[in-house]
Design goal:
Blueprint lengths: L17 H4 L2 H8 L4 H8 L3 H10 L5 E4 L6 H4 L11 E5 L8 H4 L6 E5 L7 H9 L5 E5 L11 H10 L5 E7 L8 H4 L9 E6 L2 H16 L15 E6 L15 H4 L10 E6 L13 H8 L7 E5 L6 H10 L5 E5 L21 E3 L8 H7 L7 E3 L8 H7 L7 E3 L7 H9 L6 E3 L10 H5 L4 H4 L2 E3 L8 H10 L5 E3 L8 H8 L14 E3 L24 E3 L6 H10 L4 E3 L27 H7 L5 H7 L1
Parallel strand pairs: 1-2, 2-3, 3-4, 4-5, 5-6, 6-7, 7-8, 8-9, 9-10, 10-11, 11-12, 12-13, 13-14, 14-15, 15-16, 16-17, 17-18, 18-19
InterPro entries: FBXL15_LRR (IPR057207), Leu-rich_rpt_Cys-con_subtyp (IPR006553), LRR_dom_sf (IPR032675)
Protein name: F-box/LRR-repeat protein 15-like leucin rich repeat domain-containing protein
Pfam family, one: DUF7885
Length: about 625
């Protein structure tokens, strides 16, 4: 019997639509378990999922989407009326005051906004009126854009209206709140406030705050909680003088004033930083005596950050280390008198340091780092511009089984140090070698010879003049799954590197599939020819790109139009945020399909042909 003519066979039936295969209630239940990003990706699949996703957005308790920068027009439909919403986290780089009503939502317990430089102080007033139950508020760069208003009355309204605050992070210039009543207004803040961070506070405002704290504790029959609240456990203060403070102790922080920072000894996290952004200056009226007295009440400290204490020597820093048995995180910046003696007998203590930063501690040598390496639980180490640290320090560090992030910018290491790391046991995820001028092309093959190539996700090779395109070819051939690669200000890096990265394969996928950040600012060999390698579908996950500003502006603008979610920087600014290690959980999504959000946001939902036929 002859086989039937294939022409006469009926065509296969189209697959059933999603709503016919599964009840809508089941689909909605599944979608309700997804985070926002996954929910938006699912909505781009078909009309049924889009409808269910839209419904799910109206009862999500948390909306966290800080990896994609949205305009108000794109954000508004994603935040419908939702009485269940309690937590909102966004990157607000493209938002302005028009989005304030969308952000200040009744019932919120947490609001975290990054890069909100286009939003004025109106946000603080709206939060005070709309969000009385707010527990956590974190704002970065609020009203930093020129011409935006923010006044003392905005701060007062916030502290009066949000009486349940437990964490307050104001990472911006607080000089806009300068007012004779600045120190008094804090008496109306929540008594349950346990974490307070101020991005920049002028010295005179800080001294007024300290003076108010002393006065309130000395006042007889005082019924209001002291300015430094009884629940406060985390305090961060930063100033950045534009001129050297006067020699009179009344105008600068002193040993006596330092004792008012933690009078009850309840702080667990303390950060006091004098920035040198504008001039080289320090806390000249604080010395070892002030630190010794303060350390007597610091037994509960778990982390401490001291920046600009130029008169403090090993004696003061050792007092901190030996007085805080629970200390896990230590950061000292511009410790001009800190030497190897600080860690001389660290092995005799019970300390278990996990995060250490010693930036610009120029007297520190390999010997001190070798002593520090006795902390086998060390997870993060920053030695930026420790100009006496070399290869032997790296050899000691290469034996640390938990070291995930290492910053060696400006040190005097050579290729030998990279060989130590390549043969070591460190599961490095982030390595920064910026400005290590003694390194050559041979350093990368040595580094990636061992297991580091499997764990490394962020690499900074900026300002190393001898590096060429050959270095990038090694990275591509080893298929190192980099998420961030910084190559700025390398004169010999050019178009060949971009082409190689664009065609890099990882787990069988091409098109530079793992990179999310690529910094090529002021790389001497980059020309207009490189622009074509940034077009879709190449670099599908790329979110940050740095190029030199002299490239053809028309082509740059055309790239921005075709990839609206790509943040392009041409002015030399640093890209992204510091890489965050999640201890093995690098990406929540195995397949990063952020570009798939674009059709849903910009062109409507993509619907498969099979579903269209079925619906018709």
């Amino acid at each position: 019997m002859s086989a039937p003519d294939p022409i006469d066979d009926p065509a296969p039936a189209p697959p059933p639509a999603m709503d016919a295969a599964l009840p809508a209630a089941v689909v909605a239940t599944i979608l309700s378990r997804l985070d926002v990003r996954s929910l938006l990706l699912a909505s781009a699949v078909c009309r049924c999922l889009r409808s269910c996703a839209s419904h799910a957005l109206s009862f999500l308790p948390a909306f966290h989407l800080d990896e994609v920068v949205l305009t108000h027009d794109l954000l508004r439909p994603l935040l419908p009326r939702n009485p269940a919403l309690r937590s909102l986290r966004l990157d607000a780089a493209r938002l302005d005051d028009a989005a304030v009503d969308c952000l200040a939502r009744p019932g919120l317990h947490e609001l975290t906004l990054r890069n909100c430089n286009g939003i004025s102080g109106r946000l603080l007033r709206e939060l005070s009126a709309t969000c009385p139950d707010l527990r956590v508020l974190s704002l970065n760069s609020l009203a930093d854009r020129r011409g935006l208003a923010m006044t003392f009355s905005d701060l007062k309204a916030l502290l009066d209206g949000c009486s349940s605050l437990e964490t307050l992070r104001l990472a911006f210039d607080l000089s806009k709140f300068d007012n004779p009543s600045f120190s008094h207004v804090w008496s109306s803040a929540s008594e349950g406030l346990s974490s307070l961070e101020m991005g920049f506070i002028p010295l005179q405002m800080l001294l007024a705050l300290l003076a108010m704290a002393i006065e309130s504790r000395q006042r007889i029959g005082y019924v209001k909680a002291p300015v430094f609240f009884p629940s406060l456990q985390k305090l961060r203060l930063t100033d950045s003088p534009i001129m050297e403070p006067e020699s009179a102790t009344a105008t600068d922080l002193t040993d006596a004033g330092l004792q008012q920072i933690n009078p009850k000894g309840k702080l667990k996290h303390l950060s006091l930083i004098r920035s040198q952004e504008f001039i080289y200056t320090s806390f000249r009226h604080v010395n070892d005596l002030g630190i010794l007295l303060m350390s007597e009440k610091c037994s509960n400290l778990e982390s401490i950050c001291l920046g600009g204490f130029s008169r403090v020597t090993d004696t003061g820093f050792r007092a901190i280390i030996h007085s805080c048995p629970g200390l896990h995180k230590l950061k000292v910046t511009n410790g001009s008198h800190l030497t190897d003696l600080v860690f001389h007998d660290i092995v005799a203590t019970s300390l278990c340091l996990t995060h250490v930063s010693l930036r610009w501690c120029t007297l520190l040598t390999d010997v001190g780092i070798e002593r520090l390496s006795f902390n086998k639980g060390l997870n993060v180490l920053d030695l930026k511009d420790c100009k006496s640290v070399g290869d032997e320090a790296v050899r000691a560090l290469s034996c640390l089984p938990s070291l995930r992030k290492l910053v060696l910018d400006g040190t005097v290491i050579t290729n030998q140090a990279m060989e130590y790391l390549g043969a070591g046991v460190c599961p490095l995820a982030s390595l920064s070698l910026r400005g290590c001028y003694k390194l050559t092309n041979d350093c990368i093959p040595l580094l990636l010879a061992g297991s580091v190539k499997e764990s490394l996700h962020a690499l900074d090779l900026s300002r190393i003049p001898s590096l060429t395109d050959d270095t990038i070819m090694v990275i591509v051939r080893t298929r190192t799954p980099l998420i961030e690669l910084r190559l700025r200000e390398n004169p010999e890096i050019g178009d060949a590197s971009v082409k190689a990265l664009a065609s890099m394969q990882f787990e069988g996928v091409t098109c530079g599939s793992t990179l999310q950040l690529l910094d090529l600012y002021d790389c001497g060999g980059i020309t207009l020819l490189a622009m074509k390698w940034f077009k879709k579908p190449l670099f599908p996950r790329l979110r940050w790109l740095g190029l030199k500003g002299s490239l053809n502006r028309i082509m740059v603008d055309a790239l921005v139009l075709t990839r609206p979610f790509l943040r392009l920087a041409c002015g030399g600014e640093e890209l992204g945020t510091p890489y965050r290690d999640t201890s093995g959980e690098w990406c929540r999504h195995e397949d990063d399909d952020s570009e798939d959000l674009e059709p849903w946001h910009l062109d409507g939902e993509p619907v498969s042909d099979a579903e269209t036929v079925n619906e018709e």
